[in-house]
UniProtKB/TrEMBL annotation:
This is Uncharacterized protein. It comes from Streptomyces roseoverticillatus.
């Protein structure tokens, strides 16, 4: 999700959805996030 802005009721909400996969480098506002740095769930 990205593009944070005012919703119909005036509260902030996400206005756009973007799909990403693990390992993508994404930008949200002023921030950049390397998703490969996120912890992965154990698979048993």
């Amino acid at each position: 999700m990205s593009d944070l802005g005012p919703g119909p009721d005036g509260r902030r909400c996400y206005r756009t959805r973007h799909d990403y996969v693990f390992g993508d480098k994404i930008t949200v506002g002023e921030w950049s996030v390397d998703t490969s740095e996120f912890r992965r769930y154990r698979t048993s």
